[in-house]
From TrEMBL:
This is ATP-binding cassette domain-containing protein. SMART domains: AAA. Keywords: ATP-binding, Cell membrane, Membrane, Nucleotide-binding, Transmembrane, Transmembrane helix, Transport. Residues 339-579 form the ABC transporter domain. Signal peptide: none annotated. One of its GO terms (cellular component) is plasma membrane. The chain crosses the membrane at residues 21-41, 53-71, 77-99, 106-129, 149-168, 198-217, 237-259, 271-299. It is found in: Cell membrane.
Length: 585
């Protein structure tokens, strides 16, 4: 494919007229920018308006160094490196500001929106040095033949597209899609979401600068618009029209719109922009996944090896082999408690949701947390799995305080958490989900996909019990509710936790599935020695499988005892009957 694309790049200028080749060279550089927007927005879900700023930085590095300092092969190459480094550092700083733990997606979009505006103001403020609003033209550059420039721009585009393609199909590329679909689940599997986003943003910034540098060196003109907000927004339109998250769609979107506008914007300056706007609205409504979805849809329907939806998958993960991971080093030793909670409290403003909770969990123990709706059970899970949630007290995992650690770092201490509502990645396959849950233990490859995944014995046991080991190539959206629950549990166990937090794992399951889950939980404690903390409303289920029960009421612990003690307690009966005593504060 890459060889064919390169052959086209080398042959095309021989057959096309000169004006079109000139227009295409600019469009090819812009298509490189579109790929970076697709990686950031299409694949990892960060709506960025600021990718043009990096294009502008690369373009101005070329123009400013050639105008004010010197020109020659070394200067040219030096300017290229300076442009890339400046863009990478800017992108890294913007990434840190945009994606620090807890930043909302809206926040990062606003920061990327401000970036090109700030850059243009800096260019204006640069006066004669930066050429202010008129920009810089006529600076020394290489006046090679258009055929040569076409080959340079085309080769850059093919190279970036190939690397991007390999990247999005790799282990790390799957993680980008997982982040786009369910950032929280990724964090609670120990994936460092913020760091991955910052790294991606930095690399895409540098690539955008390379494209801008080439664009400026070819056209011999730079203007503030090259780093402006308008180009940033246009690049989003190319990606949306072409097909977000497809790579090929944004390339054709950028080339198609730029070339057409070069022909039409002279004769129909206002009408052309209007046509693009209307086209954009129509495509968003009729083809939300862009024009590329027409091709991929037809390919899925009529192409070779087409699959039924239940067995197919959008991104083609290929078969994956399951292996048993070597026994981890996560067993809790000696008398150490896997989990010890002391004086834990949580407030939301003046509302006290949890107060003064203290208890410990032991290895091989199934500890159920029960209590009426609103008692604070889920909040307790949040306080254990995220160091930033609690407002008082301490939580220790195997003797280590979680302090203010973010969820992914708490996973590193040995806490695994499943959510009240099953939380998976719809367009990823079962195999992909399992592979990415091993990120914390096995890491992820940058340009390759591993053909196997090594899982600890408890996770393998669940896959076998639910039959998921025979559906590794199936997208998770086609799984039954019970299978989804099973997969989520297997994914959490793949992180090799010492303490497993389960929030209503049997909700919505049939009686048979509930019994199966009960057996699985028992084997996790008895065979594998895990400490399981379970929130459950089904008191019969709790009674059958628990070693110990903690009862919460109005955010306080009213009882901590054996199953018999709790079941026979009058206090618990009155709490559940709604006549519960007001807990003294
Ligand atoms: N972010 C928040 N801001 C304000 N109040 C909150 C927040 N999260 C939870 N609460 C309140 O804290 C209380 C406990 O909620 P929590 O979800 O922990 O209860 P629960 O015992 O898990 O209930 P359920 O069994 O219905 O899931 C509720 O009154 C809830 O409204």
């Amino acid at each position: 494919m890459a060889v064919m694309a390169l052959a086209i790049v080398y042959a095309a200028p021989l057959f096309l007229d000169r004006y079109l080749v000139n227009v295409l060279i600019r469009a090819l550089f812009l298509a490189v920018l579109a790929i970076t927007v697709d990686l950031v927005w299409g694949f990892s879900g960060v709506l960025t308006f600021g990718q043009s700023a990096f294009f502008g930085i690369g373009a101005y590095a070329c123009a400013l160094l050639a105008t004010h300092y010197g020109f020659g092969p070394l200067w040219f190459f030096g300017a290229f490196l300076i442009g890339l480094a400046l863009a990478a550092v800017t992108a890294w700083l913007v990434g840190i500001l945009s994606f620090y733990h807890g930043a909302s997606p809206l926040y990062s979009s606003i920061i990327t929106l401000a970036l090109p505006i700030v850059l243009v103001q800096i260019i204006f403020a640069g006066g004669r040095f930066t050429g202010s609003s008129s920009g810089i033209s006529g600076f020394p550059t290489y006046y090679w033949a258009v055929e040569t420039w076409f080959v340079i721009a085309g080769t850059l585009l093919v190279a970036v597209a190939c690397f991007a393609w390999l990247f999005v199909r790799s282990d790390l590329g799957r993680i980008l899609i997982a982040i786009r679909e369910n950032e929280d689940r990724c964090a609670y599997l120990g994936i460092p979401v913020s760091r991955i986003k910052i790294a991606l943003f930095t690399v895409c910034g540098a690539i955008g600068a390379a494209a801008g540098f080439g664009y400026a060196a070819f056209t011999n003109v730079v203007a503030p618009e090259l780093g402006g907000f308008l180009l940033g927004t246009e690049s989003l339109i190319w990606v949306a029209l072409g097909g977000r998250g497809t790579l090929i769609g944004p390339i054709f979107g950028a080339i198609g719109i730029d070339v057409t506008s070069s022909y039409l914007s002279g004769s129909l300056p206002f009408l052309w922009k209007f046509i693009v706007g209307v086209l954009f609205v129509i495509v968003i409504v009729v083809l939300p996944n862009g024009f590329a979805s027409l091709v991929t849809g037809a390919w899925k329907k009529f192409g070779p090896g087409r699959r039924s939806p239940a067995s197919g998958h959008e991104h083609g993960s290929g078969s994956i082999v399951l292996r048993t991971a070597p026994a981890g080093t996560r067993e809790v030793t000696g008398d150490q408690s896997p989990i010890a909670i002391e004086g834990l409290g949580c407030r939301y403003g003046s509302l006290s949701v949890l107060a003064d909770l203290s208890f410990q969990g032991r290895s091989g123990e199934l500890l159920s947390i029960v209590g009426p709706n609103g008692a604070g059970k889920t909040t307790l899970m949040r306080c254990i799995s995220n160091g930033q949630e609690r407002t008082a007290g301490t939580v220790e995992i195997a003797g280590q305080e979680i302090a203010r650690r973010s969820p992914e770092r708490v996973v590193g201490l040995g806490v695994g958490r499943s959510f009240q509502n099953t939380s998976l990645f719809d367009s990823l396959t079962v195999g992909d989900c399992l592979r990415l849950s091993r990120y914390r233990v096995d890491g992820a490859r940058l340009f390759r996909r591993t053909s196997h995944v090594s899982l600890p014995a408890p996770a393998l046991g669940i896959l076998k019990a639910t039959g998921l080991d025979r559906h590794l190539d199936q997208e998770t959206r086609y799984l039954s509710h019970g299978q989804k629950r099973g997969l989520e549990l297997a994914m959490v166990l793949a992180t090799e936790p010492k303490v497993l937090l389960l929030d209503e794992p049997t909700a919505g399951l049939t009686k048979a599935e509930r019994t199966a889950i009960g057996e699985v939980l028992l084997s996790l404690t008895t065979t594998y020695g895990l400490c399981v903390i379970l929130i459950e409303h089904d008191l019969d289920f709790v009674r059958e499988i628990s070693d110990r029960i903690v009862v919460l009421h109005q955010g306080r612990m009213v009882l901590d005892g054996s199953v018999e003690e709790v079941v026979s307690s009058d206090l618990v009966k009155s709490v559940y009957s709604g006549h519960g005593t007001e807990v003294a504060s």
